[in-house]
């Protein structure tokens, strides 16, 4: 589907204006696609924008560092923010509008509602980041209600997040198509992430080991053997390289339930600290 030509990206901070803008597009018969982000944009985000332009005539990228998905000891305060650079990149990518709400508007005084998604949130990152996925599900639902897109696009690097969002959208009967997009990587395999800028040079040289280990485990899992020995070897290899592993698991791709053997679509998923930087990645089996 051809994208509408975009001379510049509108930066919108007022919800009424956002809805007026989207309503005008709809009146003209345009499909609207949302790409939610927390800013600090990189090539991975721009690939999402490029794909979004094939799904509809109008693309909205949201930029909002959501406080409710960060724990008390996490990096909310230092999370990278560069609105001017983000807007320039969105304009180059042909984004029609950047939805940039203030935290006080998203969570006004008295705000007390949260969305809890059971099952999918209980393991993996959910075990180490209490409340994280409730914050994600709540803010994404708000963004979907604010923009009211025909489709929304998310990267598969945050695979558990993508599955949680799909579940919430299905459970709440939200009228939007959720699309996932394969992880964009550096040439050495490191998954693109806004947090990669935290890595010291020596850590950056080590970081691709995470993807290499996950790829090895995925290859072994495809052969039908037990997953536990491969996982143990993978953890040992990562720890030897200097990672502090939070989890490494082979899970059913739909339910995220751990698998002793792979007999259908699956994912190898991991989270590990390298120095002070938390890296996550996953590989399809």
SSE inventory with pairings:
Blueprint: E1 10-12, H1 15-27, E2 32-37, H2 43-55, E3 58-63, H3 83-93, E4 97-99, H4 103-106, H5 125-128, H6 132-147, E5 151-155, H7 159-171, E6 177-181, H8 201-206, H9 209-222, H10 227-241, E7 243-252, E8 266-274, E9 277-284
Parallel strand pairs: 1-4, 2-3, 2-5, 3-4, 5-6
Antiparallel strand pairs: 7-8, 8-9
The assigned structural class equals alpha/beta
Mean pLDDT over the residues: 95
The name CATH uses for the topology of the largest domain is Rossmann fold
Please name the fourth-level CATH homologous superfamily of the largest domain: HUPs
SSE series = EHEHEHEHHHEHEHHHEEE
Helix content: 25-40%
The Cα radius of gyration reads 19 Å
- Low-pLDDT windows of residues: 2-6
Number of helices: 10
Annotated CATH architecture of the largest domain: 3-Layer(aba) Sandwich
Q: State the major sheet.
A: 6 strands, parallel
The fraction of residues in strands falls at: 15-25%
Q: State the CATH class of the largest domain.
A: Alpha Beta
Shape: globular
- In what order do the strands lie side by side in the largest sheet? 1-4-3-2-5-6
